[in-house]
Amino acid sequence: MSHSEGRPVVLITGAATGVGRQCARRFAASGFDVVINYLGPDQGDAEQTKRLVMEESARGVLMKCDVSCDVDVRGMAAAIDAEFGCLDALVNCAGTTEFVQHEDLEGMTEEAWDRILAVNTKGPFFVVRACIPLLKRQAQAAIVNVASVAGISGAGSCLAYCASKGALNTMTKSLARALAPEIRVNAVCPGPIDSGWLRRGMTEQQMKNRVENFPIPRLAQPDDVVDAIHYLATGTSLTTGQILVVDGGRTM
Questions:
Q1: pLDDT tens digits for 13-31?
Q2: Contact indicator for 45, 71 with CB cutoff of 8 Å
Q3: Which residue, of 6, 34, 133, 227, has the fewest CB within 10 Å?
Q4: Residue in 161, 168, 171, 187 annotated catalytic
Q5: Residues 164, 117: contact at Cβ < 8 Å?
Q6: What's the order of all strands across the beta sheet hosting 60-64?
């Protein structure tokens, strides 16, 4: 894995905060330059991610793009081509949800459905499709999609979120076949992650109740998820089409 300046390059979508930010730090620490994708409202957080990347003596490049917009995604891929000329790894971490009780079918609005599917399912497809020419320039390129155990169990923040992540898991397998043998494609399925996102929808007690019966009874930390992402991107050469669950044994 190398580009013309001798360092591999990773694109991480949704890299402004949470798991995406920790991914950026980990890849930077392991020798990658990092393309930090973010949405406009997250610019301040994205700039902080860039500072953390630079602390690891890596190069961080900010790229604002809504992954649910194919035109914007193709523009981002063109900008990466102009900046680096290739791509070694892609981590599809951008995601969104709404907190709607599954029993509240009327509360699951068409607008929410459209946005969740656009970001969580169409978005990774758009990014993969646009980045394939860049990834194919490298000998051992890898894609890691960040899905969720909600896509396996059907339990999660809302019906649309579960459906979107289930579709992403299936798409990961389809892409692994379609892009083999040049590009490996895998997914990570975290359980509940201790994040600002989760805390906006649940109280402290609700989060405690959520994990108390897990074999490992705690919320995942972003670094727990990043361990799996980084392994699938860099620590194996024969693993593709796999869905790696990181949930403290919840779905066992």
A1: 999 999 999 999 999 999 9
A2: no
A3: 6
A4: 161
A5: yes
A6: 60-64, 33-38, 9-12, 89-92, 141-146, 183-190, 243-246
What single letter denotes the amino acid at residue 151? G
Contact 145, 185 (CB under 8 A): yes
Domains belonging to the chain, first-starting first, are 9-246 (3.40.50.720)
Q: Which residues make Cβ contacts (< 8 Å) with residue 203, sequence separation at least 6? A: none
Tally the C-alpha atoms within 13 A of residue 242's C-alpha that lie toward its C-beta. Answer: 15
In angstroms, the first-to-last Cα distance of the chain is 35
Predicted confidence band of residue 9 (pLDDT cuts 50, 70, 90): very high
161 noted as active-site residue? yes
Instruction: Report the 10 Å Cβ neighbour count for 59.
Output: 18
Over 90: is that where the pLDDT of 203 sits? no
pLDDT tens across 170-186, in order?
999 999 999 999 999 99
Which whole number is the average pLDDT over 2-7? Answer: 62
CA distances from 83 to 12, 20, 60 (A): 15, 21, 11
The token pair that represents 241 in the structure block: 């089409």
Q: Is 69 exposed, middle or buried (0-12, 13-18, 19+ CB in 10 A)?
A: middle
Tokens of 125: 């497809």
Please check the confidence at residue 200 and state whether its pLDDT lies above 90. no
Is it the case that residue 4 has pLDDT exceeding 60?
A: no
Quick check: 247 pLDDT over 80?
Answer: yes
pLDDT of residue 5: 62
Q: Taking the CB of residue 165, how many other CB atoms lie within 10 A of it?
A: 27
Please give the full DSSP string across 46-79, using - where no structure is assigned: HHHHHHHHHHTT--EEEEE--TT-HHHHHHHHHH
